[in-house]
Specification:
about 500 residues; single chain; mainly alpha; Growth Hormone, Chain: A
Amino acid sequence: MTEVIEDKGARRRWAGLAVLSASLLLVVMDMTVLNVALPAISADLRPDGIELLWMVDVYGLVLAGLLVTASALGDRWGRKKMLLAGFAVFGIASTAVLWADSPGGVIAVRALLGIGGALIMPSTLSMIRNLFRDPRERATALGVWAAMAAVGAALGPILGGLLLERFSWHAAFLVNVPVMVVALIAGLLLLPESRNPKPGRWDGLGVVLSIVGMVALVYSIKHFGKEGLTDPGAVLTLVLAVLALGWFGLRSLRRPDPLLDLRLFKGGAFSSGVVAALATSIAMAAMMLLMAQWMQLVQGYSPLETGVRLLPAAFAALIASPLAPALAGRVGARPVLAGGLAVAALGFVVLFLAPSPLGYLPVAIALVLIGLGEGSLAIASAVIMSGAPAEKSGSAAAIEETSYDLGGALGVAVLGSVAGAVYRAELGYGGASGEVVRESLGGALDVARELGAAGAELAAQAKAAFTDSLMLTGAAGAVLMFAAAGVIWWLTPKDLDLSKSQH
C-alpha cells in the first residue's frame, strides 16, 4: 500500500513538473517571438521610434520590476495561487491583442504579458523546490526545467516565423491562449499549494524600492547599450537605480523578515549558481541576437530559416541539461558547473578563430558548444535552490530569475556595444547618410538599396564589418565565460553534493 501511495505521489510530482515546464516554455518563447513579429507589426501600425522602443522594452522592464514583489506575494498568498493567476493574466493579455489596433495597444498588451510572466517565472522555480524534497530528484527536475528554457528560446523565432507566413501578426500572441487554458486546468488539478509558514511583516517601502530600482537599472542598461555611456537619461536612471536598490539592500539585510533574503549570498555555492546564471545569460543573449542578425542580413536567410539554423544550441542544451545532474553526481557539482561555462567559452573561441569568410559550419559548431555549456544552468538552478531552505525558495527563485533578466539586458548592452564599436570602426563610410550607415547593418543595407548599383560596394563593406564584429565579440564572450568559470570554481565548495540537502 505504501509503495502504491509513493508511486502516485511520484507521478503527481512529475506531472506537476510537466505543467511548470510547459508554462516556462511558453513564457520564454514569448520573449523571443516579438523579434520575428516586429516587422509585420511595424508595417501594420506604423509606430514611431519611441513607440517601437517601448514595444520591445516594456515586457522586460515590467518583468524585472515585479519579480521580487511577485515572489514575496507567492510566499504569503500561496505559490500555486500566484502561478495560476499568472496563467490567467498571460492568457487574458494574449487574447487582448485582438483589440490592439494601435502602437499603444500593443505596448499595453506587452506590459500585461510582463505582469503575467513575473507571476509565473519565480513561481515555477519555488514550486519545483517544494514539489521535489529529495535533492537528487530536484536536481533532475531542474535539469528538465533548464532544458525547457533553452528550447523555448530557440522555438520562439521558428513558431513566430511559421505563424507569420500563414496568419497576421496577432497569431504570434493568440497561440498562447489555448496553452494557458490547459495549464490553468492542469495546474488546478495537479499542483499542491505551498507558502512560507512564517512570512513576517509586509514591507511596503521595500516593494516600491525594488520596483523602482529594478526598472531603472534595466532601463539604464538598455539605453547605455543603445545611446552610449554619455546618454544623460541613462546616467540619471542608473543613479536612481543605485540609490533605490542600495536602500532596498540595506533594508533587506537589517530586517528579520526581508522581502528578499540577501543573506542567501553568504553561501559560496548559492553565489556561484547566481554567477553562472548571470554570465550565461549575458553571453547567450548577445550572441543569439547577433547571430540572428548575421543570418538574416548577411546570409539572407528568412526568419524561419534563421530559427531553424539556430536550433543546434537548443538541441545541445536539451541533451545536456537533463544529463548534467547525473554527471554532477559522479564527478561533483563544481567541475560540471565551471566546466559547462568553459565549454560554452570554447564555442565563442570557435567563432573567433573561424576562417574568413565566415560560413555556417563553424557557427553551427559554436552553437552546439554553447548549447552544451548551457546545460550547466541546470546545475546552477539546483545549486541555487538547494542552497535555500524551502521557506526561502521564493527569494532564491526571485534572485535567479533576476539574474537571467539582468544578464539578458547586460549581454545586449555590453557585448552588443562591443560589436557596434567594431562595426563602426571598420566601416569608414563618409557619405551624406554616414550616420545611418554606421548606426546599424540594417540601416547600411537600406542606404545601399537607395543608391542602386552604386550601393553594392557599401553593402559588401557593411556585411564584412558586421561579420568581423560578430567574430571579435566571440573573443569577448570567451573571455567573459572563462573568467566566470574561474570565479565559479573558486566560489563553489569542492565537496558540494547535490544529492544531499544543503539545509
